[in-house]
């Protein structure tokens, strides 16, 4: 079961998916960071239903040998953007998604408390699609309207808040292209 809505001032449809891997933020008014991630399951395979299954809590860990590490994992993102630009929302923006893990931004730890996490279907080394950049830009504009504390200098990759532990969105993510689209 899912519901859909359009982003304001946009033709982008967002499909809301059921997820229980979130909780309350310590301070709902303190959202001031956007974190860009990547994910594909199995690694490097796109268009599968495994990422969706992971975020809604019903992944079949026997479906692929690499999934054994996912057994019992409770992880989520606010949104997931597929290669075709489809946007799935798992966690309401005012709630704390479980996307950042052990993290720190500008001396502040526990980034999940004050950030929004967007996952792109991809890998560190596979170029992202134009449709993903367009959808990410539309989502980011909407999020920045909701949370004015999120400014371009407070949009980072997972690698920037979990250095040495995470590398996403990787070298394939074109930050210059994204920020150019965001400024138009």
Entry keywords:
184 residues; alpha/beta; 7-stranded mixed beta sheet; two-stranded antiparallel sheet; 4 helices; globular
Q: What is the number of helical segments per DSSP (H or I, 4+ residues)? A: 4
Radius of gyration: 15 Å
Helix and strand succession?
A: EEEEHEEEEEEHEHH
Give the overall average pLDDT.
Answer: 94
Distance, first to last CA = 35 Å
Measured as a percent range, the helix fraction is 10-25%
Largest sheet: 7 strands, mixed
The class by helix and strand makeup works out as: alpha/beta
- As residue ranges, the low-confidence spans are none
Number of strands: 11
Strand content: 15-25%
**What is the overall silhouette?**
globular
Strand order of the largest sheet: 1-2-6-5-10-4-11
Tell me about this structure:
The chain is α/β, with parallel strands linked by helices. Helices cover 20% and strands 22% of the residues. It has helices at residues 50-56, 130-146, 158-161, 175-183, and strands at 3-6, 13-16, 22-24, 33-39, 79-81, 87-89, 95-97, 104-105, 108-109, 115-121, 155-157. The strands form three sheets. The chain has a seven-stranded mixed beta sheet. Strands 3-7 form a two-stranded antiparallel sheet. Strands 8-9 form a two-stranded antiparallel sheet. Strand 8 and strand 9 form a beta hairpin. The protein starts with a strand and ends with a helix.
């Amino acid at each position: 079961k899912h519901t859909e809505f359009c982003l304001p001032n946009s033709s982008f449809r967002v499909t809301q998916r059921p997820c229980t891997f979130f909780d309350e933020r310590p301070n709902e008014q303190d959202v001031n960071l956007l974190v860009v991630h990547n994910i594909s399951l199995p690694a490097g395979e796109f268009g599968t239903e495994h990422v969706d299954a992971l975020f809604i809590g019903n992944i079949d860990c026997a479906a692929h040998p690499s999934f054994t590490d996912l057994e019992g994992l409770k992880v989520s993102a606010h949104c997931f953007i597929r290669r075709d630009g489809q946007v799935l929302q798992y966690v309401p923006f005012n709630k704390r998604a479980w996307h950042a893990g052990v993290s720190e931004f500008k001396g502040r730890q526990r980034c999940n408390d004050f950030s929004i996490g967007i996952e792109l279907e991809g890998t560190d080394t596979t170029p992202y699609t134009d449709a993903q950049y367009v959808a990410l830009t539309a989502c980011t504009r909407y999020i920045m309207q909701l949370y004015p504390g999120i400014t371009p200098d407070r949009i980072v990759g997972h690698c920037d808040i979990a250095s040495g532990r995470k590398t996403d969105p990787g070298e394939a993510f074109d930050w210059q292209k994204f920020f150019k689209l965001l400024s138009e």
